[in-house]
Input
Amino acid sequence: MHDKGITAAAVCVYPARVSDAVDTLKAAGCNIPVASVAAGFPAGQTPLETKLAEIRLAVEYGAREIDIVISRSLVLTGQWEGLYEEIRLCRAACGDAHMKTILATGELGSFANVYKASMIAMMAGSDFIKTSTGKEVENATFPVGIVMMRAIKEYYWQTGYKVGFKPAGGIRTAKEAITWLMLVKEELGVEWLTPELFRLGASSLLGDIEQQIFYHVTGSYPLQHELAMA
Output
């Protein structure tokens, strides 16, 4: 499918594996960008200086996208200026790299906190806001997605700047992915349905996508041994 332009938007790895991923994709003649989770992923319980150093190293190793994770305590204790400053410094450390800010919505306590954290992340320079690390008890849910998308819409109305949206964690079937596509279309419009403005966390989704493509091509679902990811 690569020759038809159907690829993943990015391959995401830990900072220590960025160089390996860059070299492997280059050897395969593939231009898919390497993303790296940084800034204390997944818990965010890392000193700010360490977070910034980790981001800079990932970029130095060749990451073209950085996924940071916020300090949940700043949200839960209402330290909104502190949250803004943390994300702003992370944005600066990313340099030219694209930055997605993971809110870990399942740990923020309320929809109001999700909305405020979304707005602050965008104000601080995030290119994308992302629901979850995939490690929380509760990850991407449709109600949280609507809250975040309405914050994106409000931010766009106020500034004219489009910020991307990425639900991640717990998305396991193609049908769920299609529901997210429909939701984004209804809330944000067709212009958001591009890799530049909409992504899906697909770590748990790949197996089902393989099965659906197999069914489309052959007319039957595969046996367990017929697909690598099954």
